[in-house]
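Thread amino acids onto this structure.
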């Protein structure tokens, strides 16, 4: 049974390794990740994960295809994957001293083409950040390409007061849900 990871994220690949899963191939999907007008963060995350899985499944008939998408949401607002210092600073300033949601959606398309979906909803609370803390974090460059402008597995862990939910989901792949989907599809685990 071949497993294809439809993601270029090194974090997702490493997280799979934590549960003893090594995909046979990594084949990132190239899909439009632009949020639709008034699209809710949870629906957006689920849609993008499903789109990625279906694109890659079409290239690998008969294989299991696993995809994911992680969204940082402040209320109904979907925060970007920060690509500039200004964008990262704006995200961190918005998240400073408040709670936000991290939504991690996964889709598994099985060998028959049937898609199954899971969504992990998690709450992260940042401490109130002063300007120098934001400056130091921006200087670390960890924020680049990260949803909401931070990576919980790095220096940002020291800026987070509390999390409710799955640490692996906040990193980018909810391992409990992933394992359950793989097991239900007959993928050999343990």
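Threaded sequence (190 positions):
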């Amino acid at each position: 049974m071949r497993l294809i990871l439809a993601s270029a994220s090194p974090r997702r690949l490493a997280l799979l390794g934590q549960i003893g899963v090594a995909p046979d191939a990594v084949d990132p999907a190239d899909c439009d990740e632009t949020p639709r007008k008034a699209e809710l963060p949870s629906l957006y995350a689920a849609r993008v994960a499903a789109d990625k899985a279906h694109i890659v499944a079409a290239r690998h008939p008969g294989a299991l295809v696993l995809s994911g998408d992680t969204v940082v949401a402040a209320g109904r607002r979907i925060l970007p994957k920060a690509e500039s210092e200004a964008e990262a600073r704006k995200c961190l300033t918005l998240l400073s001293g408040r709670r936000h949601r991290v939504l991690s959606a996964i889709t598994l398309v099985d060998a028959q083409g049937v898609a199954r979906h899971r969504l992990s909803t998690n709450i992260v609370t940042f401490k109130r950040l002063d300007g120098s803390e934001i400056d130091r974090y921006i200087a670390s460059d960890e924020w680049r390409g990260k949803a909401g402008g931070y990576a919980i597995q790095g220096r940002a862990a020291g800026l987070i007061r509390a999390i409710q939910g799955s640490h692996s989901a906040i990193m980018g792949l909810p391992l409990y849900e992933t394992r359950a989907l793989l097991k239900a599809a007959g993928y050999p685990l343990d």
